[in-house]
Amino acid sequence: MILTLTTDFGLEDVYVGVMKGVIAKINPHLNLIDLTHQIPPQNIAAGRFCLMNAVPYFSKNTVHVAVVDPGVGSERKGCAIALENGYLVGPDNGLFSGVLSQFSAQKAVALTNSNYWRVEAASNTFHGRDIFAPVGAHLASGVPLEALGETIPLDQLTDDSFPSPEITSNQILGAIQYIDYFGNLITNIPGTVVEGKDWSVTVNQQVIPKGNTYSSYPPQSLIALIGSHGWVEIAMNQGNAAAALSLTYGSAIALQFSS
How many domains does the chain fold into? Predict the structure, then answer.
């Protein structure tokens, strides 16, 4: 069974290793895969995007444990969600909104059964270690979802979906929903909306031409293209578009269609 881990813990501290140790004590035979531990701290939107673009590539029954949890220790619920093709385990804070827009939730439970926690008195600051990692390990080892806690009505799961773009006949008003390691700016504009059309992107009164690849224009040139994730993105050939344009999460952009 595969269990994936996604966190904003980074790799300088022992937090990720400790979570893996907790999982291995429960079931040393699980196949652990790190999606990323470099989500910007407390950035639920970035975590949501990464999960949304990773979960579809995994086999059925994979358990995805994700911890981007600025509300740890508060009254926000921990949850486990059954999908048609796997499971999600983590805080109910909107982190799973992107995945749930792609795959229908079958059932969800609050993680109220402390028999499946590492210890009954869980830390107020490290639910990844004490609740989410052990629950994910038990779930991947065959424990039924229903055993983990009380049912959550699906319409009560926290929805923190990124706003949709505003589409008119001649332009689309969008925003930056993710910035990757290279400084590429991924917008909330689906590539399917612009495929086969002539278009460009305007940011801070600067027009950025459409391209097909990162090398469509000379080094240090800005390019707008459809990325491998299927969204319109703004990139810089051999450079960092986010730094060059001083854009961040939520920054507004405009895409214009050529007449």
Answer: 2
The two structure tokens encoding residue 190: 């689906």
Q: Are residues 203 and 105 in the same domain?
A: no
Nearest partner of 128 among 113, 138, 139, 118, judged by Cα: 118
Q: In the predicted model, what is the mean pLDDT of residues 224-246? A: 97
| CATH number of residue 214's parent domain | 2.40.30.90
Specify if 52 maps to a domain. Answer: yes
Distance CA(164)–CA(108), nearest Å, equals: 26
DSSP three-state, residue 98: helix
Same domain, 109 and 83: yes
Q: What is the pTM of this model?
A: 0.93
Domain boundary (156, 191, 222) is at 156
* Residue-level pLDDT at 117: 96
CB burial readout 217-242, b (16+ within 10 A) else e:
beeebbbbbbbebebbbbbbbebbbb
